[in-house]
Amino acid sequence: MIRIGIFGYGNLGRGVETAIKKNDDMELVAVFTRRNPEDLKIETKGVNVYQADTIKSFKDKIDVLIICGGSRTDLPVQTPELAKYFNVVDSFDTHAHVSEHFQNVDKSAREAGKVGVISTGWDPGMFSINRAIMESILPNGSTYTFWGKGISQGHSDAIRRVEGVLDARQYTIPVEEALESVRSGENPYLTTRQKHKRECYVVVKEGADKARIENEIKNMPDYFSDYDTVVNFISAEELKKNHSKMPHGGFVIRSGETSEGVKHVIEYSLKLDSNPEFTGSILVAYARGAYRLNARGEAGCKTVFDFAPRDISPVDYSELLKHTL
Amino acid sequence: MIRIGIFGYGNLGRGVETAIKKNDDMELVAVFTRRNPEDLKIETKGVNVYQADTIKSFKDKIDVLIICGGSRTDLPVQTPELAKYFNVVDSFDTHAHVSEHFQNVDKSAREAGKVGVISTGWDPGMFSINRAIMESILPNGSTYTFWGKGISQGHSDAIRRVEGVLDARQYTIPVEEALESVRSGENPYLTTRQKHKRECYVVVKEGADKARIENEIKNMPDYFSDYDTVVNFISAEELKKNHSKMPHGGFVIRSGETSEGVKHVIEYSLKLDSNPEFTGSILVAYARGAYRLNARGEAGCKTVFDFAPRDISPVDYSELLKHTL
Predict the structure, then answer these.
(1) Of residues B95, B132, B139, nearest to A23 (C-beta)
(2) Helix (H/G/I), strand (E/B), else coil: B260
(3) What ipTM score was computed for the predicted complex, to two decimals?
């Protein structure tokens, strides 16, 4: 059994906990939180919650620690620090700082003889694997990534900061015509506006100026001004009833030619009822991978690009040959 | 530059040759044939064609040999034999004999200190990778594979053996309703007939009994009797004009739950203008992989399950982190 620890128990931490139950070769041994452990009620019976700063004493009791913090402030500090004591897996997704994060984790993990897997999940993660393989097998072509339909936490938060807004959910939605054009192999040039649209469900204070709020949202730089945005004002009850889930998904499509006029289209897509549960499932598979790589003597920072399918599979190689190849 | 040899110059050999041109880190150094080399005209200028049995003298001139024979009689002999002298890649696809082929290639390659990659292409190959990864990240679910729309060589050949038939092409086509049901996450049980249908284009001798031929095709065991089959009689000209290309494709879909009622659907699909050119492109990417694994000291039989994305990518790891992750 691979002994797993969860560091941070928000939506993603709960997703990881759920995923561990579906994997017979893993067991959850401890959950760590910066909150008061007594305030936390976890799903798994018989597993304790500990204060985050006690974690070093678990050095010999945990094979892989899955770090479920946020990319902005948590992971840049936590992953390099915890890689000094544990094999770790995180879902760092701030694209602009990946190289820096890689270097920091690599240094700690190498010195400790541990494996630190960063930027795992579905994007970065599964989408990255697919982009890399598609581009290797079809070097002459173009790759397109579309996200959604799904909730964007960052965009939902941005709407909540508008004066008069009580709560909000924002869906990122791929533009169907753009998807179809890419799938047809037309290799189109697509602007930001042509690729995705944004749909907002907004709850406002009584008597708030809806026209002003809608205008502020639609013209918000970086977040909305480059997109076609639809703003729907709804009640708090409606928001809770119809928009409290965390669906997501997306598409990676590569189209290209192997010779003049001979086209090929490769497509990978995800349709997810729960972003954190699916992401958690991926982190758990790469925890298995981290454990195996470390067991065969590897150390340092790794990404999904470093793992062969057999490294993350729960199935024996001979069975993979018989039933999966 | 990775020096590539092509062993066997049929449709797939030509596909490999085409693919090498799209990869800047590779060069074609020789083509080997069992036919008279002088009868063969290849695309690449300045590259010679040699008689197959002279190949051992190229031991130090070729880094990876891509073997483009058939799975029934060629590859079971050629791949283990040639792995004694070269890193090799093949596209062996006879499912029932994969384990045996693996053992044979493994023995030769290990003894010679070479890497032998078997069963590369899109199925087995890309579809296998996707099945393995999907099942690792979503262990509780069902995987479905659909093929087509595309020409099946085996089924086309079977029709040609019917008395009175001059030529034929058979398209395997996924049943749209089945695809939609799988995509919806319904997790359906599907019979052979419910998954694929077969569409045949048949040229017959003048005065042939079309009703008898249609009946014989539709009731042919193993090939057609378990499917809904449509038989279209056309002229030789029409066959040549409309059905002389080699398109193919297919879908791998996994649907499953991470917790009660929380569903996820993962889909990988290919739409290919030319089956041999696309397959050739994949063989070339895994030739790069074979070269790299061997360069770092590995030997023995490998499959797509053994290669991490970075092993087959033409792009530097630091660039992958920056632009592909």
Answers:
(1) B139
(2) coil
(3) 0.96
pTM of the model: 0.96
Q: Which of B23, B131, B264 sits opposite A271 (nearest CB)?
A: B264
Distance of alpha carbon A74 from alpha carbon A82, whole angstroms: 12
Integer Cα distance of A180 and A153 in angstroms: 27
| CA A187/CA A254 separation, integer angstroms | 9
Answer whether B137 sits within 8 Å of A129, measured CB to CB: no
Return the bridge partners of B38, or none. Answer: none
Q: Phi/psi of residue B118, each to 5°?
A: -110, 160
Phi/psi region, residue A7 (left: phi>0; alpha: psi -120 to 50; beta: rest), is beta
Comparing alpha-carbon positions, the chain B residue that sits nearest to A277 is B258
Two tokens at B306?
């053994």
Q: Is the Cβ pair B23, A139 closer than 8 Å?
A: yes
Closest chain A C-alpha to B68 CA, distance in angstroms? 17
Phi, psi of B47 (to 5 degrees): -110, 135
Nearest CA in chain A to B143: A324
Least Cα separation, residue B184 to chain A (angstroms): 9
pLDDT tens across A274-324, in order? 999 999 999 999 999 999 999 999 999 999 999 999 999 999 999 999 999
By three-state DSSP, how is residue A148 classified? coil
pLDDT of residue B204 exceeding 90, the answer is yes
Q: Which candidate, A314, A295, A310, A313, places its Cα nearest to that of A115?
A: A295
Distance CA A44, CA A256 (A): 48
Inter-chain touch B313–A282, beta carbons under 8 Å = no
Which residue's structure tokens are 């990775």? B2
User: Which residues, listed in sequence order, are joined to residue B268 by a DSSP beta bridge?
Assistant: A268, B252
**Hey, what amino acid is at A300?**
G
Q: Find the closest chain A residue to B138 by CA distance.
A: A281
> Are A280 and B258 in contact (CB < 8 Å)?
yes
Q: Are strands A48-51 and A228-233 parallel, antiparallel or unpaired?
A: unpaired
Degrees (nearest 5) of the Cα angle A1, B266, A91?
55
Q: Which residues of B touch A124 (CB under 8 A)?
A: 325
Q: What are phi and psi of A295, to 5 degrees?
A: -65, -30
CA–CA–CA angle A147, A148, A154 (5° rounding): 80
Classify residue B110 as exposed, middle or buried by CB count within 10 Å of its CB (0-12, 13-18, 19+). middle
Which pLDDT does position A54 carry in this prediction? 97
The stretch B314-322 carries a mean pLDDT of 97
Interface probe for B, chosen from A12, A146, A264 (most Cβ of B below 10 Å), is A264
Residue B27 C-alpha from the chain's centroid: 22
The alpha carbon of residue A315 is apart from the nearest alpha carbon of chain B, in Å, by 8
Q: Residue B153's pLDDT is what?
A: 87
Report the distance separating Cα B319 and Cα B325, nearest Å: 9
Residues from chain B that touch A307, judged by Cβ atoms under 8 A, are 308
In chain A, which residues have their Cβ closer than 8 Å to the Cβ of B102? 321
By DSSP bridging, strand B87-89 and strand B64-67 are parallel
Q: Is the dihedral of CA A22, A28, A33, A39 positive or negative?
A: positive
Is the Cβ pair B325, A95 closer than 8 Å? yes
Cβ contact (<8 Å) for B99 and A322?
A: yes
